[in-house]
Write a structure and sequence with these properties.
heterotrimer, B: 268 residues, mainly alpha, MetI-like fold, 11 helices, C: 276 residues, 2 domains, flat
């Protein structure tokens, strides 16, 4: 159970996240939607503690996360893995090493600095890559892969952390619709198979409706909707985005970040 | 340029000419001396037995080559030690990576001090402390190189892609692991290129540090100059120029190969 | 975590993930052997005996202790004069080098004088001049024109003339052809073409290089005195011989401050030159 209590973050005079209170049970797949600048990204970074909250608390499984430091903070970050819009792989290292990086917090620093990984750790990495059909690319440099492949490597890296929570910040916004679907399927697969809680920022409403158990909508840093996708009415969409769902679809087609064309036949 | 500039320049010119004891009469008197000096250093090579004469010119080639090898080794070990120290502390000296203000300040000032004091000054002090010999020279080269390379490395570090660092921090990796896996792969080609350039410079430096007793060929050169062994002077200078040029050519090859292998820029 | 049999299966399926191929291992071992051999050879030739090392370190510790606090010991006037000489040497050495390098650079540029052997010969001459360190030139010029800052000026000017001439020649080879052709079309002769077609294009680059050399020459000029070529270096070497460490520290501080000030001024000028 992840609980956010009155979580707030200000940058100067701007309040990016404004008194957000949510409680998310284990194993749920939550989609966070809203216009860009609504505070979705900041919210995920707050949960991972990449940035510190101005006010409010984060509690996970009874433990207060808000003020962790040093080793405890690193352990928490290992517990809640993060996926980024730009994948953020280390471009000049091979895929295998990128995946093994998920283990860094669990092992001896000295061994890590000399890049000494055991056969068992390598096997684990290969097995994880294999779940996403990427074992064959293990020794390629990360920057030789396509965007969709890179994002799946990033998911493999996240799984190596043995996290209890997965935060995905616009995981498909940099991908074409086909690759976007592959990546979203991968996220749902680990949600269903591993029972991981997944919090996913999504640009596109259709994707959120299609994949998520629960939708949280944000506007100007505040939560304006929290419920199952079916309850998200047309007037609410207009309220969140400032335009109707049809207009939104058109805008999305222009920006080509939607995966509706691929996803909708399956949804039907 | 403005009148003020011309006036300032003229004042500087005449003032420095007086302080620098520039005297056309001395130039006139000295010019024949210089030509005479250069002429005397030319070896006598007759058409009748040119090879014997050349052998005579380079009569101590075995000793000189060994001393030149010493100079090259001094440059090599000095560069290596300096680069090692520079790598160890350059992350602290980068504004975007330093773990705290104090270590940033210490690393910056340390590099500045090591860089600004001329090598020969360090060499003079170390010769006094450790006695004459190549160790004093290597130490001087290493300290100066650490300062010069440390500054350059820190500048390279300040241009890395921050997303890769954020991704590693989000896995729960510690500071040193983040530097090793997110920063080092990005900057290593640039580090190597700068290191090779420094090696070229250091071989030159090592070949003259002997003048103050810090080992290598410079010691022998200073000796033959003071004893007016004219043909030996030209022989040793020629050997130094050839060695330095050879190393320049080889290093330039390596550096071009490194640059072609791909810039350290992120792909996106 | 992972069973023995599964590990074996993964090993068989992806052998290179677990172990490098024999060829890769050989190559890696060879590279490491070369590197370690070089380091071992270097350390063997360089490292002093252990006792000498410890003794030296102790002595070094004492020296640093003796340096505090730095004082000028009543020789401030003398030191400032040495510093003045150093600055004069750097200024005039750079100036003479730049003045000599302009015609040399024009002659050494392929597009100005398309005579192959001449071009090749000049380039090798530049390499020869800059291949010899200014400290060696200083020894030669002290022998030729006597001790004092004048020898130092020449010692800085000669190798820098070679380097600057090479840089100038390269800058001139990269000028835009159209401007030169325009001057030519107006009926200019060779000298006029160089003066009005090429010089305006390369002048900012040249000035920037010259200022950079002035900075680096300030450092070099502060040590040439060690071989008798004038400047503060002579006094530094003397103080070290005389075991006068407080004054040594003072002189080093003087050099540091001077170099820092010159860097600032020249850096400011260079930015202005490039902006203009």
């Amino acid at each position: 159970m992840l609980e956010l209590i009155g979580l707030t973050r200000r940058f100067g005079s701007v309040t990016a996240v404004d008194h957000v209170s949510l409680s998310i049970p284990n194993g749920q797949m939550v989609g966070i939607i809203g216009r860009s600048g609504a505070g979705k990204s900041t919210l995920l970074r707050l949960i991972n503690r990449l940035i510190d909250p101005t006010a409010g608390r984060i509690v996970f499984a009874g433990q207060d996360i808000t003020a962790l430091k040093g080793k405890a903070l690193r352990d928490w970050r290992t517990n809640c893995a993060m996926i980024f819009q730009q994948f953020n792989l280390v471009q000049r290292l091979d895929v295998l090493t990128n995946v093994l990086m998920g283990l860094l917090n669990h092992r001896s620093t000295l061994l890590s600095l000399f890049k000494l990984f055991s056969a068992e750790e390598r096997a684990l990495a290969i097995r994880t890559l294999d779940r996403f059909d990427l074992a064959g690319a293990a020794l390629q440099r990360a920057d030789t892969l396509s965007g969709g492949q890179q994002q799946r490597v990033a998911i493999a890296r996240a799984l190596m952390q043995k996290p209890r929570l997965l935060l995905a910040d616009e995981p498909i916004a940099s991908l074409d619709p086909r690759n976007g679907k592959v990546v979203m399927d991968a996220l749902r697969k680990i949600n269903r198979e591993d029972g991981l809680t997944v919090l996913c920022n999504l640009h596109t409403l259709d994707t959120a409706r299609h994949y998520c158990d629960r939708i949280v909508a944000m506007r100007a840093g505040q939560v304006v909707f929290d419920g199952v996708p079916a309850h998200l009415t047309a007037s609410m969409v207009r309220d969140i985005y400032g335009m109707s769902e049809e207009e939104l679809d058109q805008a999305e087609t222009v920006t080509s970040t939607a995966i509706a064309s691929v996803a909708s036949p399956l949804a039907a | 340029m403005s009148v003020l500039g011309v006036v300032l320049f003229s004042i500087a010119f005449f003032a420095t000419a007086v302080i620098g004891q520039v005297d056309p009469a001395r130039v006139a008197a000295g010019l024949p001396n210089i030509i005479d000096y250069a002429y005397r250093t030319l070896p006598e090579i007759s058409a009748r037995q040119p090879f014997t004469d050349i052998a005579e010119w380079f009569w101590a080639i075995d000793i000189w080559l060994l001393l030149i090898l010493d100079s090259v080794l001094m440059g090599f070990i000095g560069t290596l030690a300096g680069a090692g120290a520079a790598i160890a502390f350059c992350f602290h000296a980068s504004a975007n990576l330093a773990p705290n203000r104090l270590s940033f300040w210490i690393a910056r000032r340390g590099f500045e001090l090591a860089r600004t004091v001329p090598e020969l000054v360090f060499a003079l002090i170390f010769v006094f402390a450790f006695g004459p010999g190549p160790f004093a020279g290597v130490l001087a080269i290493a300290i100066h190189s650490a300062g010069a390379l440390g500054k350059l490395f820190a500048e390279v570090n300040e241009n890395v892609d921050p997303r890769q660092i954020e991704a590693l921090a989000a896995t729960g990796a510690g500071w040193s692991e983040t530097m090793r896996f997110a920063v080092l792969p990005q900057v290593l080609p640039n580090f190597l290129s700068y290191g090779l350039l420094r090696f070229e410079i250091n071989v030159r430096a090592a070949s003259v540090l002997g003048i103050v007793g810090a080992g290598g060929i410079g010691e022998e050169l200073y000796l033959v100059v003071r004893r007016f062994l004219y043909s030996d002077i030209s022989a040793i200078v020629l050997l130094i120029v050839i060695t330095v040029s050879l190393i320049d050519i080889v290093c330039e090859r390596f550096r071009h190969a490194l640059i072609e292998a791909g810039p350290a820029r992120p792909t996106r | 975590m992972i069973s023995e049999s599964e590990l074996a299966a993964l090993r068989a399926a992806h052998p290179r993930v677990f172990r490098r191929t024999a060829a890769e291992r050989r190559k890696l071992a060879l590279a490491w052997a070369c590197f370690c051999g070089g380091v071992a050879l270097g350390l063997w030739r360089i490292l002093p005996p252990w006792e000498a090392f410890v003794a030296g370190l102790t002595k070094l510790g004492f020296l640093v202790g003796f340096m505090i606090p730095p004082t000028h010991g009543g020789h401030l006037g003398q030191m400032l004069h040495g510093l003045g000489e150093t600055l004069a040497m750097a200024f005039l050495g750079t100036l003479f080098a730049a003045v000599a390098a302009v015609p040399l650079g024009f002659l050494g540029a392929r597009n100005v004088l398309p005579v192959r052997p001449l071009h090749f010969g000049l380039r090798r001459l530049f390499d020869g001049l800059r291949g010899i360190d200014s400290l060696i030139w200083a020894i030669v010029f002290v022998a030729a024109v006597g001790m004092g800052p004048f020898a130092g000026i020449l010692a800085l000017a000669v190798p820098d003339a070679g380097t600057l001439a090479k840089l100038f020649a390269e800058a001139i080879e990269n000028v835009e052809k159209r401007q030169v052709e325009g001057i030519e079309a107006a009926g200019a002769n060779g000298l006029e073409r160089a003066r009005f077609g090429i010089l305006p294009q390369v002048l900012p680059v040249l000035l920037s290089h010259v200022l950079y050399f002035f900075e680096s020459n300030t450092r070099s000029a502060s040590i040439l005195g060690v071989v008798g070529a004038g400047g503060i270096g002579l006094q530094l070497a003397e103080r070290i011989r005389l075991d006068d460490w407080q004054e040594v520290a003072f002189i080093i501080l003087l050099i540091l401050v001077t170099v820092a000030v010159i860097d600032l001024v020249s850096g400011w000028l260079r930015r202005r030159v490039i902006a203009a």
